[in-house]
Amino acid sequence: MENSSDRQKFETIDDVYIENLSLPAGKARATKKLGYPNELWLWINRGGTKTFIFRDKRGKTVPIGKFEVDYIPIYRANGEQKGQNRVVKFGIADAQKIAYQWINEGIDINELKERKIKEKTEQKTKPRLFCNLWQEYLKTKTRCATYKKFIQRYDKYFASIAKKDISKITQDDLRAIFKTCYREDEQKYSGIHTLQMLFRDLNAIYALAVTEEYIKPKDNFIPALRKQYPSIDEHNTKTDRQDAHHKTFDISENYEILKEFLHDLREAWHNPRKIQGTRAAYLHILTCNRPANTAKARWADIDLQKGVWKIPARDMKDKKRAHTIYLSNFAQQILRDQWIRSQNYEYVFPVRQQKRKDGTMSEPHMKPESILAAIQNTGARHKYFDMMSAHGCRHLFKNICSQNAVELAKLGIGDNESEIALAHHGKSKIERTYTTHPVNADKMAILWQWYADFLNNLENLGINLDDDLKRGKNG
């Protein structure tokens, strides 16, 4: 029987205590009695994993479950991480509940082992539906800015195979899906980007199926199937088309097309019906944001007095780093003008919400596609459709910086600053880890102002600056 000291010791054992247990030096595995009930023990395995076990009086054991703890980051309003929430997925309370259940049922260890083997066998033979694997895959995308796009893609393209066992899906099933989205001979509306996203989804789902042993590695035909279809670059080469997502003005010889575009944009500035779209396009060009960041700009993130826009990490592509933009005087003036229109709203570019077909309400801010439309329809409908995209503004900025590298060098601005301006932090995880990119606020402010002045000198932007901005008070 347990004495009072043992009882007191067992009562102090909790999930925090278990999490802090470590494997003694020189041992491959350690066993620790937890108590309550007496049959509850813990394996401490090499690598730090811990497993609850049920051990009878004869010393025979059967696993109950693996101890699991997850840490979910907590972010402040500005996007900086302020801490973590500790979530116990499977802890001592769960193990105790199962152990007491087995004791009350009077099940022998041998019966438990047979039950475990039977459950494992049933698990392997049970149909693994594509829809269930998709839900597991979707859980890894909850923090993605494009989370809703994954749901829309599933509803539109994968409905025909949703209730099929993953092992029963054939290449012909997938080819039928690809035919609905990809038109190889089309130049403008080929669906090549959608095709590549579908392959990305399928790669992840089939990799999950292999990991869970629902299918064998040799049965994963997705990599081989992908080789039968062209990449985005191969498709664009075949159809003689520039990548629609990254297309930008050709300024290799002169800036005439850019001057024409800026002239058309200035004319649209005086059209009251297009004023919000034009302001968004101007701000997007002058800050070289990703389209979603411009469309979802919040007043809470912008300091008009200091001329600084801090985009929180939660709104950035990688969800890891906040991004700071030191606004030029022209960008500040655009925001001042827009403040008069939308100061009572959360978003800089608000729109009226509408009820969708599924019953949900649309977003209360401008869509990124609206910025694309404002850019491509400037001057005339579809005038710049084949020349410029919203994302192409970032390429335009980089190209202009590269062409004027000598002039920028005299100002102390190099390639590092232009990459930081685009929120680029290295090409790979290793590069980001070992290479630091210190942000010099003064240099970044100089770069943004130089770029705005460059465009204005090329073609008058038509933005009337307040007196304090003319004097460079905040610029």
Keywords:
475 residues; alpha+beta; hpI Integrase, Chain A; four-stranded antiparallel beta sheet; 21 helices; 46% helix; elongated
Q: Tally the beta strands.
A: 9
CATH topology name of the largest domain = hpI Integrase, Chain A
Reading off the top of the CATH hierarchy, the class of the largest domain is best stated as: Mainly Alpha
Radius of gyration equals 29 Å
Q: Strands across the major sheet, in which order?
A: 1-2-3-4
Shape-level CATH architecture of the largest domain? Orthogonal Bundle
Count structural domains: 3
Q: What low-confidence regions span 5 or more consecutive residues with pLDDT below 50?
A: 4-10
> Looking at the structure, what is the overall shape?
elongated
Q: Average pLDDT across residues?
A: 83
Helix fraction?
A: 40-55%
Measured by DSSP, the beta-strand proportion falls in: 5-15%
**Total number of helical segments?**
21
Question: What is this structure's SSE topology?
Answer:
Elements lengths: L3 H8 L3 H6 L8 E5 L6 E6 L4 E6 L5 E6 L1 E8 L5 E10 L1 H14 L3 H17 L4 H10 L7 H11 L13 H11 L10 H20 L10 H5 L5 H8 L16 H13 L6 H13 L3 H5 L6 E2 L4 E4 L11 E4 L2 H14 L25 H9 L15 H12 L1 H6 L4 H7 L7 H6 L6 H18 L8 H4 L5
Antiparallel strand pairs: 1-2, 2-3, 3-4, 5-6, 7-8, 8-9
